[in-house]
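Case study B.
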Amino acid sequence: MVTETVVRIKASFSNKMKNGNPIILKDSIVNNDHLETEGMIIRLVDEQNRFIGKGYYGRQNKGYGWILTRKENEQINSEFFHNKLLKAIQYRKSFFQDSETTAFRVFNGEGDGIGGLTIDYYDGYYVISWYSLGIFQFKDMIVEALSKLVSYRGIYQKKRFAEDGKYVEEDDFVAGERGQFPLIVKENGASFAVYLNEGAMVGVFLDQREVRKAIRDRYAAGKYVLNTFSYTGAFSVFAALGGAVKTTSVDLANRSRSKTIEQFSVNGIDYEAQDIIVEDVFHYFKYAVKKQLTFDLVILDPPSFARSKKVTFSAAKDYTHLLKQAISITADDGVIVASTNSASFDMKKFKGFIDKAFRDSNGKYKILEEYGLPADFKTIKEFDEGNYLKVVFVKKIK
Ligand code: SAH
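Model:
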């Protein structure tokens, strides 16, 4: 049996944790002197020594680990990981059966019972992301459980934690056969080129699947589309497939041009008929205002936090400003797709940013629809931060 280290939780945190909140925040721990080895099993008790749960020690942002079980006698062993993965795989049964979509999330951290661990599927390949050195200590058991439960072409991993203060981005092949990259996966019938061996980002963010489908099926036909913070142009591809007159993709990163050309090409779209611009979005807005350009559909999907040479962008502080720029170049009756993956504010606050931006612009608007995470990104109601994605389709009214 593995030894368990007792960790006492402050009274102000213990109720929430007893009620199902799985994160072990640094600030919740009475005394963390004895937390030494990442991956050690810890037994959480309240100040009266009453059992709260059992979990592991692993540092991840403000967290010091995650609760894994609330059963006092349950062991964290091969069987434990096997059962969690089995349940997660069964929950995605319809995804595994859908031949039109071959990329989705198989295991979503605390939503599936193990904080700090995600597993994504890309047409026969699995990518395991470890968010702390602590969860990485369970690698052998988790890889073994996955290998027994699914047949795969290959397994890759991403270490999303700092080792010796540095984030490692390497070719992290784990098992099976190495992939040929780009690997072409499908999403609702469209194609994406993904690279599982080029660092944390593989080329597409799977959590926006439903938003892309909505844009293609219901918003793009006959429209001029501006896609800001476009990365590999996934939204632009879906807009073009949906019949957009032209898409304009804007991203600061040099690599975005070739990556976007590639995504258009694997979908049989003539990229030369589209605009792909490598520039700071805020510069582009100024240029567009000066040239009196307007767009019918404007997509805003910035990172939660970004630092460029001159400016830092923080979604929590700067989203209203970003929206105001977007409003100024959106045509009357045009639609803004406002998206954020920031866990630091909720939908209510996000709608407040939208409201303020339109009021400051003396404009009227109507919210057409809203999206959160798709079903494969399973979340639990006891952990709001896990439900980070907020997307609002807003119509600008004259
Ligand atoms: N919307 C994308 C994902 C965005 S990822 C998609 O759905 O696939 C965030 C992107 O924002 C990165 O590609 C990064 O290069 C870009 N970025 C960050 N700051 C920027 C800025 N000021 N102007 C333009 N692009 C920026």
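Residues 78-91 form the longest helix (14 residues). The remaining cases will be described in the next quarterly update.
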